[in-house]
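Dear support,

I submitted the protein below through the web form. The confirmation email said the job was done, but the results page showed an empty box. After a refresh the structure appeared. I'm attaching both so you can tell me whether what I see now is the final result or a partial one.
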Amino acid sequence: MSQVQAEESRSKFKEMVDRPKRGPRRFLWVLWALLGPGLLAAIANNDAGGVIAYAVTGAHFGIGLFVPLVICLAPLAYTIQEMSMRLGAVTQEGFSRLALRRYGRFWGYYHISTLAFENLLTLITEFIGMTAGLVLLGFPLWLSSLVCLALIITFVLFTGYWTKERMALFIGALNIIFLVVAAMTHPSMADIGRAFITWNVPEYLKDGLVWFIIATIGNAIAPWMIFFQGSGTIDKGVTAKELRFSRIDTAIGSIIQVIIAAGIIICGAALFGHVQNMNDAGPAEMISAIDQVVGRWPAILFGLGLFNAGFLASITVSLSSSWSIAELFGWSKSLNDKITEAPKFYAVYIGSLVFAAAAILIPNLPLNLISIITQVIGGILMLPLLIFMVLMTSDKRLMGDYRTKLFGRIWGWSMVGLLIGLTVATFWQTFF
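What the results page shows now:
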């Protein structure tokens, strides 16, 4: 690891945080310096696969249940991400290393292997989304996949954590495109208001409802987010002294994430009753359907938003794998390092991207189905991660004065119970 670069990056961050300003100006300055891991983890969770899943959900069910549902998921997402951030800031160790050290090799390798599997599936959905627009423009799929791969790999060539983080934040800000498209569909505000009041789904639409619910929850609390935010917090140089502002970073990300998710569902809901069999269509068909029903410009903007969502998520998902695997095996693992200084860390990053880019070239892949299944698997795999997260953040020997208080522990275990119930319901509906 390049200690000089790492120290330069962290000293820049500390200089911004400790700069002697007072009042609101200092608050905003420190908040700007600390914005990053929480905001990126949340915004990137509206990835290409999530966008497709949300839009399909809207096209299948309308506004109904799911717009209120995603808004209600903000406290759940914040709770999990705050625990991940606090664990990293206080211990200065990533989740995988802590699990290995405290609970043994089995659980350390279990978390890494399930994360790697889920992340590879997720990356496939990112490339599915990113290439859709290029294919519609006439590019062959193999060239579209190659162009997307080259763009994402280029990201690691920039120097230092700070530069890469600010670039990623700019990319994430472009997610506002989905709110613009949602407005262009001219949704009925009365229908949206009624959805929050009645919060139900017509009887004839209830087949497969549990699958879509757990997919929606799985997208809001994907496993990679835990690993990304914890490791990003450490790599940035955040410590327990900055918890207040890091919590604001996490809260802002959680709120923005669900608002954009609701906007995407509204985009899909514009197709409700107009397009049949959207469950079997790919992202290109989704864009074409928006073109036919809403208009060309909303379709173009939706395609751009889908590309942007996949681009940002490809970076963050790959980094969550790289950070966690490198930490478990004791490799150099900082974004302050150049490729030559942390070759194994970047090999995991680039290798996972190459795998996903090649996988989408397999003929006749059920693209939308893969997106939904990936979110469902994410919701199921989150359960053991959340159990260990609650246990570790509640441990006074590990966290000291920063351990989770009684109400937080009750809330955390309530989330575990919710995921257990949804997992059982999913298996029941699938196999019985």
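Response: this is the final, complete result; the empty box was a page-load delay. Residues 296-329 form the longest helix (34 residues).
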